[in-house]
Design brief:
alpha/beta, 37% helix, binds magnesium ion, binds guanosine-5'-triphosphate, 6-stranded mixed sheet, Rossmann fold, 210 residues, single chain
Length: 210
């Protein structure tokens, strides 16, 4: 049986796993430190449909460069190889630290890994992923707005209006903005023949496999 995927991507600690919990009720492991999700974890939610909780894409303090590179490689390979089987992609990023992290990690040359990954998904899957701008409950409003502007500007190449349809400010932890993202996600899945995809999964304990 062919497997189809709903994938969640993003930097270490962005809140991918928390977002899966908030959207679907599936109790995937979450943690305070980056590196909680170590493998590409699949959770079957119906006959052929799987939630895919990805490990963090990018650098994290104290981690070995080699293992990080292997992880990044696995994520990119998965997206490339399974492109036709990815029904929906959701990219999660931290709205508080977008500018700061991108600058710091790129050693002052401003290259955005979040934007690169969004574009990589769009090119391979053939559709722009939904983007969850996470952790809006944290930090100053001014900083959040600046980070959002920088992200929108980068991801649309200077036409922020183009992103209103697929970027969703959320707090996965406080469950803010989850309703809007979920209804777009459910709508999109419906268009692709998956009705009521999360009906039976709430609070169910599920085993993952990779
Ligand atoms: N304040 C706040 N914290 C959040 C939010 N979402 C997630 N977190 C916290 O961020 C930390 C990381 O959350 P995870 O969901 O494990 O992040 P992840 O992206 O899956 O991380 P890795 O698996 O390590 O790549 C946890 O301490 C969460 O409680 C949010 O919306 N607001
Ligand atoms: Mg995780």
């Amino acid at each position: 049986m062919l497997e189809r995927y709903i994938i969640f991507t993003g930097r270490p600690n962005a809140g991918k796993s928390t977002t899966i919990r908030a959207l679907t009720g599936v109790k995937v492991p979450i943690g305070k430190k980056p590196g909680t999700t170590k493998k590409i974890n699949k959770y079957q939610i119906s006959k052929d449909l799987y939630l895919v909780d990805m490990p963090g894409y990018g650098r994290k303090l104290g981690a070995h460069r080699n293992s990080e590179d292997r992880t990044k490689d696995k994520i990119l390979k998965f997206i490339e190889k399974e492109a036709d089987n990815i029904v929906v992609a959701i990219h999660v990023f931290n709205i508080n630290t977008f500018i700061e992290t991108e600058r710091r990690l790129a050693r002052k040359v401003f290259i955005s890994i979040d934007i690169e990954l969004v574009q990589y998904i769009a090119e391979n899957v053939g559709e722009v992923p939904f983007v969850a701008a996470n952790k809006i409950d944290k930090g100053k409003e001014q900083d959040i707005m600046e980070n959002m502007d920088a992200f929108l500007y980068g991801v649309t190449d200077g036409d922020p209006e183009a992103a209103v349809d697929y970027v969703f400010p959320i707090s996965a932890k406080k469950k803010v903005g989850i309703g809007q993202l979920k209804s777009r996600l459910v709508q999109k899945l419906g268009e692709k023949g998956y009705t009521n995809p999360f009906r039976d999964v709430r609070n169910r304990k599920m085993n993952y496999r990779d």
